[in-house]
Write a structure and sequence with these properties.
By secondary structure, the protein is mainly beta. It has no helices and four strands. It has a domain of 41 residues. The protein has a two-stranded antiparallel ribbon. A two-stranded antiparallel ribbon has the order 3-4. The structure holds zinc ion.
């Protein structure tokens, strides 16, 4: 039984002209207007690309490591006072 359950996208049907930049979720391939950056791929040459996920799938992704804000592991294993 095939009911009319398909939700076809109708581009241009939005009145007002306010086009919201939407992104496709990399996990469920859903178009979301609230994209969450889950990964940033850096390429050797040129700008990389950003991977987006919807808010529902975002928690399923590991946190994006902040390379620039990673604290150096200095003093680790030193001064632990382990006897
Ligand atoms: Zn998703």
């Amino acid at each position: 039984m095939t009911g009319p359950g398909e939700r076809g996208e109708c581009p241009g049907a939005v009145a007002g002209g306010a086009r919201v930049p939407v992104r496709m979720c990399v996990r469920c391939c859903a178009i979301t207007d609230t994209p969450v950056v889950v990964s940033v791929v850096h390429q050797g040459s040129g700008p990389g690309f950003t991977v987006y996920a919807c808010r529902d799938c975002a928690p399923h992704f590991p946190r994006v490591p902040d390379v620039l804000s990673l604290a150096p592991e200095a003093g680790r294993g030193e001064g632990e006072g382990e006897r």
